[in-house]
Amino acid sequence: xxxxxxxxxSLRYPARLLTDIDERVRTTARQMLDLMYESKGIGLAGNxxxxxxxxxxMNVKSDPQQRELEQVFINPxxxxxxxxxxxxxxxLSFPGLFQKVRxxxxxxxxxxNLDAQPIELFTSDVHPEIQExxxxxxxxxxxxxxxxxxxxxxxxxxxxxxxxxxxELERDYRKAQGRGEIPSDAEIEKRLRNGDxxxx
Length: 200
Ligand code: CO
Known about the structure:
Blueprint: H1 23-38, E1 43-45, E2 55-58, E3 71-82, E4 85-89, E5 99-103, E6 106-112, E7 118-122, H2 128-145, H3 150-153, H4 156-178, H5 185-194
Antiparallel strand pairs: 1-2, 2-3, 3-6, 4-5, 6-7
């Protein structure tokens, strides 16, 4: 399992609902958490590992020792948002790019956990120290599952100052494709449509 980088088509592909939460899904979630820690990330969505299903993992402290903060959400939906706050954001699929993004201050989310139990998370109830960050991660990751990226949510100035970094990422991606390290976009899109597993 590897994290795909912009502009890999998986990042723009709307992830499918997971209808069966089985051992394979649990294994994938565990691998995603380990990969997230390895990359010093605080959240990772299925699309980012070429797994086009509605699943994301998070730990806002990025600390494998703090297992109580480790969470896996399946088929998540935000049912309410309150307030608005701007903060710095990055993404493991855009190494080196950090920009201010405006997000809701608190959200209410419904999802399923790995035991297929419905859960609800209201970030107003989260410890104040990590409340804003938790809300931000939930919105960022759920966007991923719909093929929406943080570059879409940036203001005009942030977008403008991201341009050269995005061009660089696009160049690197095409070069890796030229070397045969990444399949062609047409092949990737075919695999996404078929949901062939494993995709990597
Ligand atoms: Co991201």
